[in-house]
Amino acid sequence: MKDINILGIESSCDETAAAVIRNGREVRSNIISSQIAIHTEYGGVVPEIASRKHIEKIDDVISLAMKEADCTFDDIDAIAVTYGPGLVGALLVGVAEAKALSFALNKPLVGIHHIEGHISANYIENKDLEPPFACLIVSGGHTHLVVVEDYGKYEIVGRSRDDAAGEAFDKVARAVGLGYPGGPKIDKAARNGDPHAIDFPRGTVADNPYDFSFSGIKSAVLNYINKAKMKKETINVPDLCASFQEAVTDSLVSRAIGLCKERGYKKLAIAGGVASNSHIRSRLESECAENGISFYRPSPVLCTDNAAMIGCAGYYEYLNGRRDGLDLNACPGLKLGER
To answer: Among candidates 308, 255, 249, which has minimal Cα distance to 281?
Structure first.
């Protein structure tokens, strides 16, 4: 069979990325231009700045991806691009670039759901992973527990009713003075803390045991900090971070393992930026081992936003016959499973 090369483009938030993927699972190049240093000054992503930086960087990122892959546009079979969800201005930069390339090169255009890309990142380094399997998606904007029934076909079993786990990490990190981005900073601080020092609540949802709620634990941490300040007590930041992280991890792990046991799934994957958290990965690995479940997780560089995952998802969508027209638009509120 002829090799199929997909050019993937990702610009949903604050990373401008391009990659060339061969046959869905071989990364020929994966270039990422991060804006973290810029947005750290503001304590979070500033949408207007992110959009402008995408415009500045996207041509160079694509050129570098093509050069590293040692290929020309003649070698590309289709162009895959994130079209939602995300920041609308940021998404528009990638979508406009992909449409321009599709038109100029007469190449098929394939729109990709950002979260579907995160799930697909697991295929890149785990050549044996095939649907069906359970997947826990944990990122700054989303917390989902899904069953991957087939390539591009998902059943959403649980989701956050309020804050996403990554959002809670960022808010707690800001509250204790660690700054942005919160996830990696809390992960690092927690390594020197006692995860049982403070008993923070584990949120539950009455009508769906697989749904998540993180607003309660976020409020509990903020109340703890405010009370300590009013009493002029010193806050042990590593203990607070470790206890908060433990509570979030308990919520995530219990639901993911519970779903696998209830439905008999023997494969569990994790995806999204927060999936790079060392404690969450360690707990899931040990719990899966205890329950005879195979655990799959991408390398940290493939957990954060990147274009390799978009190229991988694009490959399977391309095989499934998806083709988008030049009327493809950015969809900032796109839900998983929507087309």
So the answer is: 249
DSSP state, 75?
Answer: G
- Tell whether 136 and 116 lie within a shared domain: no
Domain hosting 204: range is: 131-298
Cβ neighbours for 236, distance < 8 A, ≥ 6 positions apart:
193, 197
Specify the length of the chain in residues: 339
pLDDT band at 180 (very low <50, low <70, confident <90, very high): confident
Distance, CA of 306 to CA of 11 (rounded, Å): 9
State pLDDT tens for residues 62-101. 999 999 999 999 999 999 999 999 999 999 999 999 999 9
In a domain? residue 333: no
| C-alpha separations of 152 from 80, 100, 210, 229, 269 in Å | 14, 25, 22, 49, 15
Assess whether pLDDT exceeds 80 at residue 29.
yes
Radius of gyration of the chain (CA): 20
Which spans in 133-276 are helix H?
165-175, 182-190, 215-230, 237-263
206 in the same domain as 88: no
